[in-house]
Design a protein that fits this description.
Number of strands: 0
Number of helices: 4
Strand content: under 5%
């Protein structure tokens, strides 16, 4: 049985990946090509798709009258996708936060650091949205009446 994602589950990959990427960037940032903003497009598209799926899953789980029925397996897959996406989003957020802290001191002096600062802000927003969408999708599959009814047969 899978448990809900806790704040520590999100914080651990964020912090570990942020620390490792920060050290790597301090050693090799000058040799990297400029980062591109369009890397945020697939992350943002996945976040939007997961918000849409979460709405459908929530309606099916709560037996909303206008909801299309979903199989239990489809709901479970959605919950697993949400859990995975929240962890991946946290990891990407950690890497991008490391980039942001690497380029922030030089953003006013060099155009490359200024450009990468803007890119890191865009990527941080999209990866935070992916983390949020994953958590929403994961929680959408939880039956709100699970603890209140008698499930014995």
């Amino acid at each position: 049985m899978m448990r809900r994602t806790s704040p520590m589950d999100i914080l651990a990959p964020f912090a570990i990946i942020a620390a490792v990427v920060y050290l790597l960037l301090r050693l090799s940032y000058e040799s990297l090509p400029p980062f591109q903003w369009f890397a945020a497009l697939p992350i943002s598209a996945l976040a939007i798709a997961e918000f849409v799926i979460a709405r459908r899953v929530r309606a099916a789980v709560r037996h909303h009258p206008s909801a299309k029925p979903m199989t239990a397996l489809a709901i479970a897959r959605g919950v697993a996708l949400g859990k995975a996406s929240s962890l991946v989003g946290a990891g990407i957020s950690g890497a991008v936060a490391a980039l942001l802290f690497t380029v922030l001191p030089d953003a006013g002096r060099t155009s490359a650091a200024s450009h990468d600062l803007v890119v890191s802000i865009i990527l941080l927003a999209s990866s935070a949205a992916l983390t949020a969408a994953g958590l929403v999708l994961e929680r959408a599959g939880i039956d709100p009446n699970a603890g209140r009814r008698d499930d014995r047969y």
